[in-house]
Structures are given as C-alpha cells and as structure tokens.
Specification:
Structural class: alpha/beta
CATH architecture of the largest domain: 3-Layer(bba) Sandwich
Strand content: 15-25%
CATH superfamily of the largest domain: FAD/NAD(P)-binding domain
Largest sheet: 7 strands, mixed
Number of strands: 22
Strand order of the largest sheet: 5-4-3-2-1-6-17
Length: 472
C-alpha cells in the first residue's frame, strides 16, 4: 500500500496473541493509534493455554528426570536418617496451579507493556464490517464500531476435534483443557504423534503417568528429521511409553470411570484419560471475512503474502489463522512485518528458510533451514555430517547419551544451509546454526570461530570442520 502518515494512522488488531501484541508494539513505536480487540487475555493461546503452559509442564517433568540422571553420576539422595529418598512424586494440582499462575503473570506483563506504549485494549471479539471498520462485541455487553486505516487479523487457531471423539473436559481432553486436572492420569492415551502429542506424552510420562501414544504413521514425529524422530521414539520406548505405530484412531468414548480409544482395525485401548492432539483449525469463521472479500484457503486459513497482506487492501493477517507456520515466533514476525509495511517503515519479506523451530521433548529437537527430506528427494544438493553427542566431552560429564548435531552444507560454496540439533536445551544450541544459515556463513567461518571447551556447542564447530573441503 502507499506510504501513510504513521502519526495519524489508526490501527486495529483483532487478537492479542504473539502476532497481535508484537504488531501492536511496532505500530505504536511507529506512531500509530493502536487498538487491540482481544477476548481471552493478551498473549493469546500461546501464553495462556499452549506454549507457555505446555513448556512449563515439560520443564517440571524434565526436572524430575534429573533425579534419575543423578544416580548415574554417582549422586544418591538420602533423608536426614541416611536412608535413600523414595522416588519424587508430582502433585498435579500444585503443578497445574503453578502453570496457570505463570501463564497469567506472563499475560499481565504483556498487558502492562502494551499499556506503556499507549495501546488501547477492548475485551471482546472482533468482526470486519468493512476494510476500514471493525465491530467489537464487548464481553461486558454492548458493541463498539472502531474505525481503522489498517487492520491486522491475528485470531489464531483452536484444537481440532472429530465427531467420534468429542472432548468433555474431564476424561477426554484437548491440550487446552489438561491444566484443569487435579490428579495425575493413571493411564493416559495420547492420540496423535505430531509435535503437541509427542511433547505432552513425554511430559506426562516424566510426571509419572502410564502413557500410550497412538500414532497413525510409521513413526512418531512424521514431519520431522527422520534421524531425530528415531532417537525420540527410542527414548520413549526405553522409558516405558507404549507407542502404537500405524494405529489410526476411529473413536474415543468414556466407559465407566475411564476411556476407550477404538482403532480403525478394531482394537481397543483402555485408559483413565485420553488427550486429543490431532491438529488445529483456524479461528476465521463468523468474522465477516468473506463478505469483505478476504480470500480464505480450503482449510479456512487466511491467504497472505510474504509481508502479511490479505487480498483486501489495508487488511493484514498474522499467526496460526494464516497457516504459514504454527510457531509463535513466526506469528510475531508476521505481525511485525505487517505493521512495518503498513506504516511505511523499511521491511524485509518473511523468509521461512531461516526459521528455527524446536520440539520440547527430552532430548529436544531443534531445526533450521533445509531438511534431510529435501536432500533425500533431490530438491537440495548438500553435504551432510552427523556427530553423535555421546562423543562430546561435556555430554559425557552431564550423563547425556542420546542426541546428535547434524549440519547441511551447500556443495561447492560450503555455505551452511541447514542443521538439526538433538540434545537437552537444543532450543539454545540451534542459535549459532541459525546465525550461520541466516547470514550465509560457510563451514570454514563456523569452524574457525572459537567455542568453549568443553561445551556442547563444540560439536557444532567440529561438524563444520568435517565439512571442510580442500581444493585439488
């Protein structure tokens, strides 16, 4: 759109998740008059019911696993009488109380930040009346018609359900409902082995539940690096999880004081609770999008370009409602790009080739750039080196036996074009690889950069050294 005067631009944002509140901060910084229409609390599902709560739950499970590692390191816990301390126990009511308190505190921090920069927040739901008008239906009653020069839609997504597996919030649960449990599920059946399913299956296993993971595919995490997925599935099985591969769910129902998951081949899996992790659907219906002319995909996602523009001039969209990549970091970047573009600031289009992502299993899986699949199917031409972490001295000191570092280097130039890290805190270790991919560093530049000895990051430099090629 044409460059506009940011000092007088009225910006209305529908949805207060990462795409929405990050956009609001940028728009306010650029001088816009900003209003957010938000229903559930700033931070959205990412803060209140998804990323922050789930990762807090996972961190608690990871903490408990440290007790197991301690024994391998020669550390034995004893009480004051010199007797061995019994196994640690998770009190789920206390764990979930902390999870919800932390999420609420993060939401309040975001609200305080947007208030500091003068953003107005309307509690309610928003609907497009036109490209320049948003009707806010307020939670405390009434409506308000907000005039806009720029509109950003950031309404997110909600857990997908199917008619034969309806959540009841007590025994059959979505990932947004699990934080209301006050007792640890005795036997939890997780339906779906994608990122959410794998993360929460391992979290509850670590907290002490008996866990069954129902996967419709050959292996868990079917969309991820196959070597990484193999490591995680091996860890799952070794720690006592029952993984049912090639097992598609047909229905879930309550039976007595438990649940039954019926598979398409006729088998039945019994448990105390079922957790549904079978994808998500965008929250785009009933918002007046079609009437205004905003194009939607067949899946109901808002179609956007690389600067977050929709098909309607002046209307942008960001986050899970666009279906670009279901990551909070991508939603935030889309929102920031949208406001910079709309308000005439310098901006680079969204580049998905440099997005780093992480799966918070134990060990974690972090990725950036091209994938192993791209190399295997011939769409990318690269040299690959994989180093097991078990050979890393810092890993040995810490009792780490699972995981690896994998780097992809472009043939000829040696540019680092992708990588995979499977390790504890891989989400932190992937950053130097992301820098290399983003700035097109070659393997020699990475290899010649100092790393601390001993450190897990030393394996990244070592992998780069092994990718060095000599001229003949």
């Amino acid at each position: 759109m044409d460059r506009v005067n940011a000092r007088t631009t009225r910006v209305v944002i529908v949805g207060g998740g990462p795409g929405g509140y990050e956009a609001a901060l940028v728009a306010a910084h650029l001088g816009g008059e900003v209003t957010i229409v938000d229903r559930d609390g700033l931070g959205g599902a990412a803060v209140l019911t998804d990323c922050v709560p789930s990762k807090t739950l996972i961190s608690t499970a990871d903490y408990m696993s440290e007790f197991e590692t301690a024994a391998h390191l020669g550390v034995h816990l004893e009480d004051g009488e010199g007797d061995a301390v019994s196994d640690a126990k998770a009190e789920l009511a206390e764990v979930n109380s902390r999870v919800k308190d932390l999420a609420a505190a993060q939401s309040r921090d975001i609200a305080e930040r947007v208030a500091e920069v003068g953003v107005r927040v309307l509690r309610g739901t928003g609907r497009l009346r036109s490209a320049t008008q948003v009707e806010a239906t307020l939670l405390d009653g009434g409506t308000e018609l907000v005039e806009a020069d720029v509109v950003l839609l950031a309404t997110g997504a909600t857990p997908r359900t199917v008619p034969t597996a309806q959540p009841d919030g007590e025994r059959i649960l979505t990932w947004q409902q699990i934080y209301e449990l006050d007792a640890l599920p005795e036997r939890l059946i997780v339906v779906g082995s994608g990122v959410t399913g794998a993360e929460l299956a391992q979290a509850y296993l670590g907290l002490g539940s008996d866990v069954v993971l129902v996967s419709s595919r050959d292996r868990v995490l079917p969309g991820e690096d196959p070597d990484a997925a193999t490591v995680i599935e091996d860890v799952f099985r070794r720690r006592g999880m029952e993984v049912l591969g090639r097992s598609r769910m047909a229905a879930v129902e309550t039976r007595g004081d438990g649940v039954v998951v019926r598979l398409e081949d006729g088998r039945e899996v019994e448990g105390s609770h079922a957790l549904l992790a079978v994808g998500s659907v965008p929250q785009t219906s009933g918002m007046g999008l079609e009437e205004v002319g905003v194009d939607l995909s067949e899946s109901g996602h808002i179609v956007v370009d690389r600067v977050s523009r929709t098909s309607v001039r002046g209307v942008y969209a960001a986050g899970d409602c666009t279906g670009v990549l279901p990551l909070a970091s991508v939603a935030a970047m889309q929102g920031r790009i949208a406001m910079s573009h709309a308000l005439g600031d310098a901006v680079a289009p969204l580049n998905l080739g440099v997005v780093s992502a992480n799966i918070f299993t134990d060990p974690e899986i972090a990725t950036v750039g091209i994938s192993q699949k791209a190399i295997d199917d011939g769409s990318a031409d690269a040299d690959v080196v994989t180093l097991p972490l078990a050979r890393n001295p810092r890993a040995k000191m810490s009792g780490i036996t699972d995981g690896f570092v994998k780097l992809f280097a472009q043939k000829g130039s040696g540019a680092v074009i992708g990588g995979v890290v499977v390790a504890p805190r891989a989400s932190e270790l992937i950053f130097p690889v992301t820098l290399a991919v983003h700035h097109r560093l070659n393997v020699d530049q990475v290899a010649s950069t100092f790393t601390v000895y001993p450190s897990l990051s030393g394996s990244i430099a070592e992998a780069a050294r092994r990718l060095h090629t000599t001229t003949s």
